[in-house]
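Quick one, probably user error.
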């Protein structure tokens, strides 16, 4: 055995070393996770959409039946609230002033004093049940009804050239949510980042006029990486953005309910394409498409896997099945409280694949708001039953003991040591809730801002706030940002890491005057570098006061 020779240092050298080391640590310290109050961010939306089950045949009667079923089935009680009208409500007709005209027979008066052909009627009906209403258009001049699933082609059913007018109209009708598709934009070869930014501005203007902001669902199918620009478009960014094509195959002909098939393989690939954890934070979500849970083509276990994947992903939970025909098993899958809570968790983070010990055997982890908590999915994508293990260290937990619960049944599972292992049937998944102790984090305060910020952090104005010398154990790091926002509305900042493309972060009000709060994001850092640089710039002033970041 050889012993490395340690050079002897004189006392002066030791002193210098201590000073340098202390200086290095002056903006870096180990911290406990529970020290700062976590500020909840808006959860992903939950609701129903007409598209999967009714295609372009949607009308007032269908929407009323579905809205009633959302109540009577118990879905609303479980948290589902949006009733979204998709393609087919409008056939491309406008009056001389450019106002959208709808078929009065499909959208009749529903109460005394109402006018047939006024979409405000169906909104009043939906609101009357205590639910929220969604509408649909296209960013191009024509929409997807120029490629109909059923019946004749309809052109001009897009909003291009009428953005301000249409989004104001949707808000005036009382809608709460708008999905903006890309069939026309795609056909015309438009730039989605440009078109959707204009739409975002139209939505912001409509909100300023009506006092009613439309939740913005951007549907460009992931073609031009919307996770890199969607949360940044215009003054009123997209809340959710599609990351892939449709799970359901188009209807070829005939009876829509019999022919609309869901595919388990396509559902899995949509899950994979929807994973962009660096973009999903502070209330903005990747959207892997409305769900096919309960539709022809999937068995009950497959529905559970699908639901678990969407919950892990923090995906919007928009049911595509016919709500009047859900089986008890499907309803139980859609309403399991622990699975829904993982999706809706107030930290708003997406799951990350933390291990794949053999091809097709995957461990996914979603960090939850409560310290030391993780939702974990053991996913077996192979054709035979397999044993899959999760180690606490893969979850960013310490070696301390942890409890493990089956998310679906609430049953506490026996565990000892620093991992848990379960047998997972072929093509199936086990969803767990793990409660342990977070591994220590390292905190950093802004560099070079001491004179202006003291110990209270740096106000984000036209000077960016920068954190330098940041280290991470992993490529995908969890970053807690401690800040204050004494205002009543969220403040925004752009974060650029190592000079890469920026992501937009919302900082909700922290309340309590200048009391600090924290939000979580996940960031791609260089784990081999001792000098990752994170730079926050204001999107508009005033910005938040950014105090520190902690890396796990
Ligand atoms: C696109 C969207 C679907 C649906 C249809 C309507 O394919 O991705 O979700 O809105 O258009 O035609």
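Nope, works fine. Designed sequence:
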């Amino acid at each position: 055995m050889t012993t490395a020779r340690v050079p002897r240092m004189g006392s002066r050298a030791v002193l210098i070393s201590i000073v340098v080391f202390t200086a290095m640590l002056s903006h870096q310290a180990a911290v406990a996770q529970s020290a700062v109050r976590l500020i909840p961010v808006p959860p992903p939306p939950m609701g129903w959409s007409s598209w999967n089950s009714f295609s372009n045949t949607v009308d007032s009667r269908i929407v009323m039946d579905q809205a009633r079923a959302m109540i009577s089935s118990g879905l609303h009680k479980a948290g589902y609230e949006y009733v979204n009208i998709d393609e087919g409500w409008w056939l491309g007709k406008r009056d001389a002033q450019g106002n959208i005209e709808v078929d009065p027979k499909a959208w009749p008066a529903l109460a005394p004093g109402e006018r047939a052909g006024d979409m405000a009627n169906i909104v009043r009906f939906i609101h009357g049940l205590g639910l929220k209403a969604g509408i649909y258009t296209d960013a191009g001049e024509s929409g997807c009804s120029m490629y109909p699933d059923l019946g004749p082609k309809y052109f001009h059913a897009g909003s291009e050239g009428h953005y301000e007018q249409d989004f104001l109209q949707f808000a005036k009708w009382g809608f709460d949510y708008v999905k903006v598709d890309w069939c026309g934009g795609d056909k015309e070869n438009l730039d989605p980042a440009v078109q959707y930014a204009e739409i975002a501005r139209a939505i912001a203007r409509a909100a300023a006029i009506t006092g009613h902001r439309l939740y913005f669902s951007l549907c460009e199918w992931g073609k031009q990486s919307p996770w890199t620009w969607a949360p940044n478009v215009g003054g009123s960014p997209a809340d959710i953005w599609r990351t892939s094509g449709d799970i359901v195959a188009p209807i070829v002909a005939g009876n829509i309910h019999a022919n609309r098939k869901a595919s388990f393989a396509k559902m899995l690939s949509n899950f994979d394409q929807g994973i962009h954890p660096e973009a999903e934070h502070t209330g903005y979500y990747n959207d892997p498409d409305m769900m096919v849970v309960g539709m022809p083509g999937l068995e009950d276990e497959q529905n559970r896997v699908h639901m678990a994947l969407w919950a892990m992903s923090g995906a919007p939970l928009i049911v595509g099945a016919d709500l009047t025909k859900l089986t008890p098993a499907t309803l139980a899958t859609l309403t399991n409280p622990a699975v829904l809570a993982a999706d809706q968790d107030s930290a708003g983070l997406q799951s990350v694949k933390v291990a794949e010990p053999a091809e097709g055997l995957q461990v996914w982890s979603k960090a939850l708001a409560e310290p030391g908590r993780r939702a974990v999915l053991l996913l077996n994508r192979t054709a035979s039953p397999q044993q899959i293990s999760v180690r606490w260290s893969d979850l960013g937990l310490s070696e301390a003991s942890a409890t493990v619960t089956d998310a679906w049944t609430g049953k506490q599972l026996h565990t000892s040591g620093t991992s848990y292992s379960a047998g997972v049937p072929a093509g199936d998944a086990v969803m767990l809730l793990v409660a342990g102790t977070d591994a220590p984090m390292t905190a950093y305060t802004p560099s070079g801002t001491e004179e202006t910020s003291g110990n209270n952090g740096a106000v984000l104005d036209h000077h960016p706030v920068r954190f330098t010398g940041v280290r991470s154990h992993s490529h995908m790091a969890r970053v807690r940002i401690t800040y204050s926002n004494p205002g009543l509305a969220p403040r925004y900042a752009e974060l650029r890491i190592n000079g890469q493309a920026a992501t937009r972060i919302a900082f909700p009000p922290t309340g309590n005057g200048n009391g600090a709060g924290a939000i979580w994001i996940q960031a791609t850092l260089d784990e081999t570098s001792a000098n990752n640089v994170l730079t926050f710039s204001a999107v508009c002033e005033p910005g938040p006061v950014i105090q520190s970041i902690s890396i796990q």
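The radius of gyration is 25 Å.
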